[in-house]
Amino acid sequence: AQSVTQLGSHVSVSEGALVLLRCNYSSSVPPYLFWYVQYPNQGLQLLLKYTSAATLVKGINGFEAEFKKSETSFHLTKPSAHMSDAAEYFCAVTAGGGGADGLTFGKGTHLIIQP
Amino acid sequence: NAGVMQNPRHLVRRRGQEARLRCSPMKGHSHVYWYRQLPEEGLKFMVYLQKENIIDESGMPKERFSAEFPKEGPSILRIQQVVRGDSAAYFCASSPAGGNTQYFGPGTRLTVL
What we know:
Number of strands of chain A: 12
Largest sheet of chain A: 6 strands, mixed
Helix content of chain A: under 10%
Number of helices of chain B: 0
Distance between the termini of chain B: 37 Å
Oligomer: heterodimer
Strand content of chain A: over 45%
Shape of chain B: globular
Largest interface: A-B, 25 and 32 residues
Shape of chain A: globular
């Protein structure tokens, strides 16, 4: 069984500041981890994924995340926030090993960008 | 290459009616997943299907909900005798055989009056 905890339902940063969105997971097997972004009234777009290769993963739009097994974390970062980054961000986990299982999502973090 | 298609994008039903939500996976994808997003909550897994097979329906409510993915045509999520609590956004995702990444459609927003 897997679970995901996203700390902070809302995060507010100034334009140009560092973005840090936290995700901690629990999994009884080696996990695959994902970050998705959702803009209002739209579907989810994949930002990046960890599938047991490099622990530092780079994604689209300047985002990256680091898998830390010892901390069971997969935090999402971006060095400099842009107004267009304002959206809902979801961390998700599934069992690793190539199996095709449903994703378990966190409750999401709403990122607000202050001008 | 077209993405995951869902229709309708918005669906309004009265209590007691049936709702049918359709999902066409990305070309070449044989795995389909359905998720439900309730207001102020994250997405919850409902069901995972391959062509003509339900692989995992552990997230499906026991009554009124069913899903299929026929050999030809889109996957269908069917909700019978809808109630107000069924109002939500329903998302479909697809992945290729052996793939570990799910690609999401734009969702169907169901409103039950």
